[in-house]
Structures are given as structure tokens and as C-alpha cells.
Amino acid sequence: IKERLTRDYDFWRQKRDSCGKLGVSSDRKLLLVLFHLSAGISCRKLAVTYRVSSGLAAKACTLFWDHMIEAFGPTYLGELTQQRITRVERLHRRLNWPLCLGSIDCSSWQWKSCPRAVQNLFSKHDEGCVVRLEVVVSADLKII
After folding, report:
1. How far is CA 119 from CA 10, 44, 105, 106, 112, in A?
2. pLDDT tens digit string along 111-125?
3. Which residues contact 69 (CB under 8 A, 6 or more apart)?
4. Which of 79, 102, 117, 119 is deepest in the core (most CB within 10 A)?
5. CA–CA dist 127, 11 (Å, integer)
6. How far does the chain reach from its first CA to its final CA, in angstroms?
7. With a cut of 50, which residues of the chain have pLDDT below it?
């Protein structure tokens, strides 16, 4: 992901400022986005933790999704057409999975900093606030 983002998008590259000083590294930008996604930490708090401007942190979090979809969307998020279904069915038949369009994978994360206003949408009585992700993929790892 890092290699693709730094190759294709200027924002993710480490650059020098007008004084010649190196700016924020691509590793740091990506790390703060991953912490934002995994722990639900606000961009403002991440900016303090990683010693970057809150504007840069917010921009990194926003651009990450735009760039991920642009870079990897055509490969992994293609439209579900009859041609694609036929291709997936053939692939799964060869793997001895007849009539299987895809398999579902579920992940759950506890959301420690869940805002009170939405707690009832994400709460499980025994686990607190939980975010659940469900994805259906084919054997070639394309999201269906």
C-alpha cells in the first residue's frame, strides 16, 4: 500500500519545505491513518501524538480513502456483472467449491472512544461499543 501510494500520489511522499527541512515521512502519515482507523482516535489527538498539524492529520485520513479506492478499486471493488459472476463460478468450480460465489469474513473491533451520541448503534450488551466489518470475497481475493 505504501509503495503504491507514494508512487502515485504526491501527498504521501516525504518532501522538503522552503527551508530545505524534511517534512513528515510517508510512514508517519500512514501510521496515523492506521491508528485512526483501528483505534478510533481523533485526527486532532493523532496530530498531537505524531507531532503534525491537525490539518495534515485530517487531510491524510480523508485522502487515504480517496486514494485507496482510486488505486485499488478497479482491481478489488469491481462492479458485479454477469461476466464476473461466471468467472468466479468457474474459478470456484476448479477449486471444488461448486455453487459458491464467495466466502464471508467478519471482524469486530471494540471502539473505546465511541461518541455517546452513537453508542446505541454500536453497543453490544457484554462488550461495549463494537464495530463489525463483513466482507464477501472470491478465491482470488476480489471483493464481491
Report:
1. 37, 21, 24, 20, 11
2. 777 777 777 776 666
3. 77
4. 102
5. 38
6. 21
7. none
